[in-house]
Amino acid sequence: MLILLAAIFALHIIAIVILLVATIDNAWWVTDVISTDIWGRWILTNGVWNLTDLPEGSHYPKDYLQAVQASSVLACIFSILGIFVFIAQLFTLTKGKRFTISGIFQFLACLCIMIAASIYTDRFHINENFGSYGHSFILAWIAFGLTFISSITYFVLRKKTA
Description:
Order of helices and strands: HEEEEHHEH
Number of strands: 5
Radius of gyration: 18 Å
Strand order of the largest sheet: 4-3-2-1-5
Largest sheet: 5 strands, antiparallel
């Protein structure tokens, strides 16, 4: 059981790191000279990357962008809270109640990053012919899968003894 708990802990830490990289790093949409994230746009000018504001208008609806930003940050917060709750529950709660709250936090993180990536997919870069989704966008979807697996594991694990 100790190995299982260590594996769950490692999965949770990996999910947190991937969530943080997906939220902070600057590669949700990339071209040869532009790298865009949910916070700004990097443009390659004379061999130097320069940070600029995201363009305003129909390409980047501000309300949807704020929803993506908020959902990504909330996913990170819920997942970090979930690991602290996991550690606290491991030593304080009785069998049957032990990992329910951790599972709820991971499930909330899962929903938040899914909402962020889904809105970004649906509302941004729709009519752009050049470029592709970058590694941060892909990491957001991987984080969705990891947090979902982690939350399901917590719900299954709640009935086991530790």
